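Meet the record:
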Amino acid sequence: MAKPLKNIDDPLPPEILPLPFRAWPEEGFRLGPCVKAGVVLGGIAGCVSLLLNVIGSVMWPAASGEVQHPLHLIQVFLTFPVGASALKLSSGWLLGLGCLLYLVTGAIYGVILECAVAYFFPYAGVRGRLTLFSALAIAIWAINFYGILSWLQPVLFGGRWIVELIPWWVAAVTHLVFGWTMALIYPLGVEKARPGASQS
C-alpha cells in the first residue's frame, strides 16, 4: 500500500498517479537486482513449463495411442546443439544436461521479461501483468520458432526438428505457461528491483 501523506504539500506517490503523470522512465529502477530477480523467477517459470510438458508427455499415449518419452520436449530441444541423434536419447547425462539448458534458457528469458515489465510497467496489476507477460511470451515463441529456428536449424544441422516435431499449440501453451508463471510471481522480484516501490 502507498504510504500516507504527512503533509498536504507532499508529492503524490507515483503508484497512485495516472499513467500520463508518472515519470518515465520510472525513477528508482536498478538493473542489477532486476537481473538477479529475473534469473530466479525465470528459472521457476521454466520448471513449471517443463513440468507441464512432462505431465503432458506421460498422458499423451493414453490420448493418442503413440508412445512418447516423458522428456520428449528436451529431446527435441537438444536437436539444436546435437542434431537428430538427440531424438534417440532415453536417459543419461546428455538428457540431464538438456534439462539444465532448458532451465538456463528460462532464466535468460526471465531476465528479459522481468526487466522489461519492471522498467516500463512497474505498477501493473495482476490482470495487466498477465496480459503483458502473455504478449511477451507469445512474441518470444513466434520470433524463436518462425523467425530464427525455422531457417537457422536447417542451416546448422540439416533439419527443422524443433518447428516440425513440437506442435504449434504445444509450443504456444508452453510459452504462455512460462509467461503466466512470471506474471504471478513477478512481485517477488520487483520489490527488490525497485526500492521505491510500495510494500504490500
Summary: The first helix runs from residue 31 to 64.
